[in-house]
Amino acid sequence: MQFLTCAVDAVPCPLEAQQWRTAAEVIDPAALGITPELIVKVYGFGFGATLSMFFIGFVIAVACGLVRKA
User: Which residues contact 5 (CB under 8 A, 6 or more apart)?
Assistant: First the structure.
């Protein structure tokens, strides 16, 4: 499968800058700037955000339980 892409950032794309590229060239992670360090950073951020939201909810639930018992 091939995609028609533009080699320059222009709208509309000039005819001389249009080129056919394969899916492997278009979706190349290295060309997009995706590095192992970035993947670890994003995964860590997601894990940290999920864990912190869980603990915030847990603390609120424990506080509500203590208020009901008092």
Answer: 18, 19, 20, 21, 26
- Predicted confidence at residue 33, as pLDDT, reads 84
Q: CA 35 to CA 62: how far, in whole Å?
A: 41
pTM for the full predicted model: 0.56
Q: Is the same domain home to 50 and 68?
A: yes
- Expressed as residue numbers, the domain containing 12 is 1-32
Q: Examine the domain organization and report whether 20 and 43 are in the same domain.
A: no
Phi-psi group of 34: left, alpha or beta (phi > 0 → left; psi -120 to 50 → alpha; rest → beta): beta
Distance CA 43, CA 49 (A): 10
